């Protein structure tokens, strides 16, 4: 599978497309048990193409287990739409499902859907404790764990080591230094880029790492949103001069137009998730071998720890309708997410700490990088900023950011004023999806 093709397909999702697929009955996702509560029927497993070989490996290793594996697209909204249809017919639920969009766990665990089973009594605490600290936060609601993370996407400061040396710049350790370097580069080397401010690539990276409560889930029914806090306004203050000098762009990194920055040697720095290293800089941005390196995220004012944001990753859920297949379903999910040999071969940063260490051995030797990226990636994984929860208004969270903060960045208008407009939209989106906003 080509890396850039994989990532484009992953992000090509739309809820409308998912709904069309569901209504047309495509996908062959008929249920394993057939009725509510399940039975002794086959274990029905839904996974994407990337997880399919692992699921087949598990099936082969358990010949006495009746198991049917169905490939599903990673499109946003696809799984909730299909589960909604299963709820209407009282049949057809998968016993195990992989979410390429882990925020959908908030939808599937909600009372309205009633799909996701709590895993606290199914997966030992000793196993759950092996996941990177904070990795299961997006799976936890009201103290119960509803999913296991397959992979995570902690953010680091990616930078072009060749350009840094050529221009005589130092890799910034604080966000103030980051801003100064970005403004200097914009002045001395017009068109140079130090960041992207678009949807989840702005909200998840900058606001997520700063700890701004844009989606702090207190339970399945309550979320904390408050963009008046210093953790939010300091992000606007950081980005305001950079946006006016066009040192940050509102073009999304997954937009083909973004590749121009790489081809023109204009990406000096780019705060981004772990998977950018393998899937974006070379395949998409065409940055040559030996240029890209990773550093810790810069430190915010008044803090001494470089917190990471989050953009991406996947999760496995077990159905509350699995009945007598529940234990088998939980065992599969546990194996898929914690088997070290399996996880060491997956394309993105494993959520299970021992697997991540094994996975990183090959990454440390990858000749594409200017320096070993694993120290920064490991440190970022251990420093996920708390308060970034899975929410049922994920799409609105991204779109409302672009409609307010993104537009202000484009026009050069006040980003602090845009925070108020974004908050209004977030409040409305949260309430429309059944949350009480605190």
Plain-language structure description:
By secondary structure, the chain is an alpha/beta fold. It folds into two domains: 3-152 and 312-364, D-Maltodextrin-Binding Protein, domain 2 (3-Layer(aba) Sandwich), CATH 3.40.190.10; 155-307 and 393-437, 3-Layer(aba) Sandwich (D-Maltodextrin-Binding Protein, domain 2), CATH 3.40.190.10. It is built from 18 helices and 15 strands. A five-stranded mixed β-sheet has the order 2-1-3-14-6, with helices on one face. Strands 12-7-13 form a three-stranded antiparallel β-sheet. Strands 9-10-15 form a three-stranded mixed β-sheet, with helices on one face. Strand 1 (43-47), helix 3 and strand 2 (67-71) form a beta-alpha-beta unit. Helix 2 (15-24) packs parallel to helix 4 (78-89) and helix 9 packs across helix 17. Residues 1-39 have low confidence and may be disordered.
Kindly summarize this structure in a few lines.
This protein is α/β, with parallel strands linked by helices and 438 residues long. It has helices at 3-11, 15-24, 52-61, 78-89, 105-108, 125-128, 161-167, 175-188, 199-210, 230-244, 259-263, 276-279, 326-338, 340-343, 353-364, 374-381, 394-411, 415-432, and strands spanning 43-47, 67-71, 96-99, 140-141, 144-145, 148-151, 155-160, 195-196, 216-217, 222-224, 248-249, 269-273, 292-295, 314-318, 436-437. The protein has 18 helices and 15 strands.
What attributes does this structure have?
438 residues, alpha/beta, D-Maltodextrin-Binding Protein, domain 2, 2 domains, five-stranded mixed beta sheet, three-stranded antiparallel beta sheet, globular, disordered N terminus
